[in-house]
């Protein structure tokens, strides 16, 4: 018998022992030790930094394959703004944690005691900055692009301003400096130009750093701050880059706040990256995002569509508009997040599911979730993956989520039943917690999150004791539904 096969058989035997013996026994403890490093294959991404001492201000950014920009932004603040460091948390969300920049980005935690590294790869794009606010511990949050520099003293003055306005509901911006280090922008004018909404403009008051704050209509999101509890949140269905100009500002206004320019908050950005462009323009994403936002806010998208048709041509715009309108009217729009679980070592399954999602018109709204890889018993990985999605949904305050598996029975023959099930679910309102949808997916309501997270630990060894019921003959997706429904308290 090959040694590798014999070892696998031995581990399976230990797993069966683990599932049967008393957790308080010495035999359980020994079985746990033997299985600890074997049940789950280590994910190919680095671990997040543990939460540290709470600070007054969180300075957060999302970075993606931009080590140079990130490094000089963080280190410039540490070098040239030492007066703020004792009460600041640096929070970095790595949106490509399996890429070449991940390790050096994380390694800064070894030299910066108030630094937190968060890997996140479920979705990519500008809307990932939402995670900065969900992970931040500061009373106020300064969210920045990972390639900006601040004028000396500006961050200290920002902290002083925030301390003097502890109940502020405002969105705070500053004055953008040119490469000549002179003021070039205090706000955006609400105009369309070359496919983008918002043109830089300079208010005379912004030329003097000592001018008092003044109200503006909108600004770019390269640098902005607000009280963490006043953050209005981004539409969780947004994907890719762009399309958010003026959006947060309108949500802040509707919540009773203002958008302000603080002339002393002076900053500059890297205008070009000639050796690499990590964010290619995908007009389909920009158009879809804008239409989703306009729908959320109840605004007329016609002027934007007219501009795009003039700029890009009707043939490139109308299919995207029609697809997004169908998405908005379809049953899947009910969910704040739609996930598909897929093992990193099975990309062909993800490609096949993408084609099915494309046929349903929901491809751009799908979040690929990297599955927990548990070769000894795949049910353990399925449970861990669903549990981790629920944990992510709770962190991001998603009200309803839909979870597919990449081996599910999503086919033209089953989509009709799935669609009918989704519409029935919406008609039920909040009268459900976990729902099984015709063998294709499981839906979770936010009311089930706490019970599931309490009942199902994020630990492969302990989950192994819970999944015996999933080894019984039968339709596995339905069994998985019942597993989580029981633990949410929905069924007895």
Describe the structure using short key phrases.
492 residues; alpha/beta; Spore Coat Polysaccharide Biosynthesis Protein SpsA, Chain A; 4 domains; 17 strands; disordered N terminus
Plain-language structure description:
With 492 residues, the protein is an alpha/beta fold. The chain folds into four domains: 3-35; 57-269, Alpha-Beta Complex (Spore Coat Polysaccharide Biosynthesis Protein SpsA, Chain A), CATH 3.90.550.10; 283-325, no CATH class; 330-488, Spore Coat Polysaccharide Biosynthesis Protein SpsA, Chain A, CATH 3.90.550. The protein contains 16 helices and 17 strands. It has helices at 3-20, 26-35, 67-80, 102-107, 130-135, 154-164, 247-254, 283-297, 302-312, 314-329, 347-360, 378-395, 412-427, 449-455, 460-466, 476-488; strands at residues 57-63, 88-94, 115-119, 140-145, 148-150, 171-177, 183-185, 187-193, 196-201, 214-215, 223-227, 259-269, 337-342, 366-370, 400-405, 434-437, 441-445. Strands 3-2-1-4-11 form a five-stranded mixed β-sheet. The model is unreliable at 1-7 (pLDDT under 50).
Topology:
Layout: H1 3-20, H2 26-35, E1 57-63, H3 67-80, E2 88-94, H4 102-107, E3 115-119, H5 130-135, E4 140-145, E5 148-150, H6 154-164, E6 171-177, E7 183-185, E8 187-193, E9 196-201, E10 214-215, E11 223-227, H7 247-254, E12 259-269, H8 283-297, H9 302-312, H10 314-329, E13 337-342, H11 347-360, E14 366-370, H12 378-395, E15 400-405, H13 412-427, E16 434-437, E17 441-445, H14 449-455, H15 460-466, H16 476-488
Parallel strand pairs: 1-2, 1-4, 2-3, 6-12, 13-14, 13-15
Antiparallel strand pairs: 4-11, 5-12, 6-7, 8-9, 10-12, 15-17, 16-17
